[in-house]
Every structure is written in structure tokens, then in C-alpha cells.
């Protein structure tokens, strides 16, 4: 089939006016629940939906990657590199030497993380161990000595994106390889997080004519998804969106053409969310991916999975 037509608009976010002390909140005012734009019919709805949104937030946000040009026309695996990545604030007592100036990726963004990734292989990730009879509590580093199957120069895996669900850590390497990290019982009274399995397929966009893309990991109803925001030329403009779902039994990534049920996805630089439209209280806006990024100047966009169109949006409206 031919390429779907895209609609792109770039607008600047409206200037914010200072609210009066005794101002009355008008009907259909816009609120940001944990930075998620939702239209509320009343001020009380703002508080009722806030906890629902927080419970459905997953993932540690996005990572920006770019394809590396190669003179080798017969290269088996086109290589990827990170671009435009800035270190995030660290709110936990994690030794900065573990991170080596690489942005923090975490398995639980709203809680103290049990596992953090470094973006390098030495160490690959760190995890927090509770005190036992023979040891004190504290952070422990783990080195990765597994070669990334999609690295043309046989480099060890370097994790750049991560999400945790039901005790299992799903990490994606710089080159798009999935690694399963789980707590493994050791001799004595201790347990360590170790890589227990490697994905059987590479998770990268199908449309490789894009020069850059943003990658987001999220969980929705027990399933793990990856959302790609594709940029053909300029990183400032998103030209297409692709969504993949992980087959957790076969460890294979499959592209999806529509979201399950009445799902709607939200992806930001530092968090993601998959939520049911009816649970949120919206009669419209399902089967869509809502996104913004650091170059969007506060503007939100929506990608309609059915039409394949991208347009600006203030967000879905709570009307139920």
C-alpha cells in the first residue's frame, strides 16, 4: 500500500496569563495531570482522574536515535547512535560514577527505582539490594559481557531504554536488541539481577527512510509496547508514528496497525502512559497516540492509527 498522507502543523504554545486569585474555573478548562493534557468538565474531575492517570503511567520516557551513514552498501545491520540526549535530574542516592554522564533510565519512574541503566556496558545497569544477614543494603553494579547481535563491531550490549513489569525488567540496547533482566537466586541468602534472555527480533522502525526517531517503552494491560516517532529530515518534525507489541513468549516484536480496545497512548520525554479511554472518561480519542517532545515548544500532537494522520491537539476531552 502507498504511504499514508501526513498532516503536520507547527504552532507555538499560547502565552500563559496569570490567573486571578478568585478566578472561577470555567467549564471545559484544560488541566495537565502529571503533564498529560486532559480537558475536564469540572474542577472536581481534575482530582478524580489524577490518581487514575498516575496508576497507568509506565516507562521512563523516550530516547532519540539516529541512523549512522555507512560507506558499506552490504552492511548486515544498519547502526544506530543516540542524539540530543541530555542528563536528567537524579533524585535518588545513586553514585554518579555508575551513570558516567549517561541519562538515567529507570524501571519505575514514579517510585524509587530498583534497576537503573547506564547506556554503557561497564557497568550496564545498577540495582538496589536490600540488607541481608551477611551484607548491607546499597547499589550494586552489573557488567554486560553479552555481545549485541546487531552490532557490526561486536560491542557488548549498551542499554538505552527500560521498563519494569511484574518483577521482570525489559531493556532495549542502543542497536534495538531486547534483553530480559530478572532477579536470580544465588547461593546463600542473596539474589542478583541478571540477563536471562535475549529478544529474537530487532525493534527498529519499519520505515528506515527516516533519519532520526524517538523510542518509547510502555506497558498497557500487561503487554509491552514500543512507540516510534519518526523524523525524515529534521528532528523538530515528526513525520510518522509506528507502534510495536512484544510477544512475551516468543520474544518477538510485531507491528500493530490499531490499538487494542479503546486504548490511547501518551508519550513524553520523561514518561509514557497507556490507558483506556472509557477508564479516563473520554468517549472519543481512542486508537490514537498523543505525543510531545523537547523540540515541540509545548505543543501536543495526535496520531490517528486509523487514518495515519498527525495533527496538533489540546488533548482528549473527558465527557463521561
UniProtKB/TrEMBL annotation:
<feature type="region of interest" description="Disordered">
    <location>
        <begin position="1"/>
        <end position="20"/>
    </location>
</feature>
<feature type="domain" description="KIB1-4 beta-propeller">
    <location>
        <begin position="116"/>
        <end position="304"/>
    </location>
</feature>
<protein>
    <recommendedName>
        <fullName>KIB1-4 beta-propeller domain-containing protein</fullName>
    </recommendedName>
</protein>
<dbReference type="InterPro" id="IPR005174">
    <property type="entry name" value="KIB1-4_b-propeller"/>
</dbReference>
<dbReference type="Pfam" id="PF03478">
    <property type="entry name" value="Beta-prop_KIB1-4"/>
</dbReference>
Amino acid at each position: 500500500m502507498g504511504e499514508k498522507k501526513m498532516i503536520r502543523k507547527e504552532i507555538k504554545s499560547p502565552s500563559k496569563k496569570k490567573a486571578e486569585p478568585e478566578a472561577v474555573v470555567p467549564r471545559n478548562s484544560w488541566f495537565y495531570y502529571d503533564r498529560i493534557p486532559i480537558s475536564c468538565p469540572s474542577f472536581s474531575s481534575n482530582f478524580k482522574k489524577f490518581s487514575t492517570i498516575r496508576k497507568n503511567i509506565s516507562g521512563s520516557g523516550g530516547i532519540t536515535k539516529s541512523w549512522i551513514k555507512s560507506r558499506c552498501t552490504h552492511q548486515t545491520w544498519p547502526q544506530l547512535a543516540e542524539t540530543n540526549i541530555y542528563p536528567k535530574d537524579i533524585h535518588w542516592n545513586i553514585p554518579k560514577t555508575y551513570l558516567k554522564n549517561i541519562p538515567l533510565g529507570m524501571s519505575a519512574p514514579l517510585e524509587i527505582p530498583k534497576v537503573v541503566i547506564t547506556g554503557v556496558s561497564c557497568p550496564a545497569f545498577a540495582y538496589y539490594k536490600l540488607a541481608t544477614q551477611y551484607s548491607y543494603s546499597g547499589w550494586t553494579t552489573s557488567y554486560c559481557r553479552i555481545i549485541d547481535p546487531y552490532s557490526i563491531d561486536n560491542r557488548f550490549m549498551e542499554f538505552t531504554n527500560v521498563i519494569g513489569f511484574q518483577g521482570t525488567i525489559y531493556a532495549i540496547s542502543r542497536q534495538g536488541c531486547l534483553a530480559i533482566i530478572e532477579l536470580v537466586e544465588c547461593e546463600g541468602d542473596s539474589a542478583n539481577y541478571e540477563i536471562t534472555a535475549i529478544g529474537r527480533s530487532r525493534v527498529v522502525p519499519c520505515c528506515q527512510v527516516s533519519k532520526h526517531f524517538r523510542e518509547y517503552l510502555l506497558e498497557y494491560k500487561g503487554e509491552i509496547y514500543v512507540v516510534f516517532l519518526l523524523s525524515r529530515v529534521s528532528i523538530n518534525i515528526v513525520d510518522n508514528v509506528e507502534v510495536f507489541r512484544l510477544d512475551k513468549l516468543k520474544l518477538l516484536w510485531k507491528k500493530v496497525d490499531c490499538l487494542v480496545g479503546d486504548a490511547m497512548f501518551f508519550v513524553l520525554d520523561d514518561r509514557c502512559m497507556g490507558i483506556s479511554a472509557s477508564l479516563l472518561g473520554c468517549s472519543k480519542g481512542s486508537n490514537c497516540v498523543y505525543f510531545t517532545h523537547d523540540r515541540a515548544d509545548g505543543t501536543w500532537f495526535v496520531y490517528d492509527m486509523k487514518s495515519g494522520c498527525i495533527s496538533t491537539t489540546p488533548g482528549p476531552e473527558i465527557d463521561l
